[in-house]
Amino acid sequence: METGGCRMGGAGPGGPAAITLEELDALPEESPDSAYHSHGSSLEEEAAERMDDEEQERLLSYWQSVGRGHQVDVPRDMAEPIQQLTRNNNPQERQSIPFTLIQRKEKLGDLLYEKRQYGKAKWACIKMKEKQYEQSICLGFMKLMRYICEQNSSGLYLGITVPIVTIVHTNEAHSAMTQAVTVAYYLPEVLQDEPPHPFDSDIIIEEWPATIVYSRSFRGITNEDSIMREINLLAAILESPELCLRDTFIIAGYTNPAAANRHNEIWFLQRP
Questions:
Q1: Residue among 125, 136, 129, 112 at smallest CA distance from 223
Q2: pTM (2 decimals)?
Q3: From residue 153, how far is each of 148, 183, 203 by CA, in Å?
Q4: pLDDT tens-digit profile of 115-140?
Q5: Which one of 46-60, 65-79, 98-112 scores highest in mean pLDDT?
Q6: How far apart are CA 270 and CA 243, in angstroms?
Q7: What 3-state DSSP class applies to 235?
């Protein structure tokens, strides 16, 4: 989701330049072919702009349709960020968050979970507290999209990193989630030392300490029911769940919230 332009002027310091009748008569007549070539580029540009606008409308309409399913309003000013993120959303251009694999736990050939070490890093974070989890992650992700797509102090597209993560909290019994969540975007390696400042004051740049996580994959939508199910499932699988925080977990999303069959992970955080 890039814009740019240049301005040219032919006038000198003294004002607009004048062309005499003699000079006008001396100019060669423009043939039909040359006229076509001189105007062809502008016609092509107009056609490209129309196609660009049509693509924006199509993508915005799709996101608005998905948003309505989650009771989320996708505003018109999201058209350009959605388009830019879509155009850059191919696997070759995504940066995965680096980690060190410590252990893989398998049973009968199926992967139960992975134990990983994530290093200290800076994240762009936004706290949300909507009535439903899906509303919080959709609205939080849209705000982060604007930051990624040039609405930052560098004025540049920052690049997508995966996963986008959401910190969730539960009660001690793991029976219910609280409404407050934090949606976070890992800043690319080249921006870790000097992250661009967000224009949105709700987005905060935070440095997270090195952390050991226990990760288990699951697919589909993420809501209060599916998250609680995955938390309880991983708690039952782990040999020593008491080593992890009991009320704070991370949902890692590898596909955007508009996708139907999402690739997700549940992360348990080992106590410091």
A1: 136
A2: 0.75
A3: 11, 20, 13
A4: 999 999 999 999 999 999 989 998 99
A5: 98-112
A6: 6
A7: helix
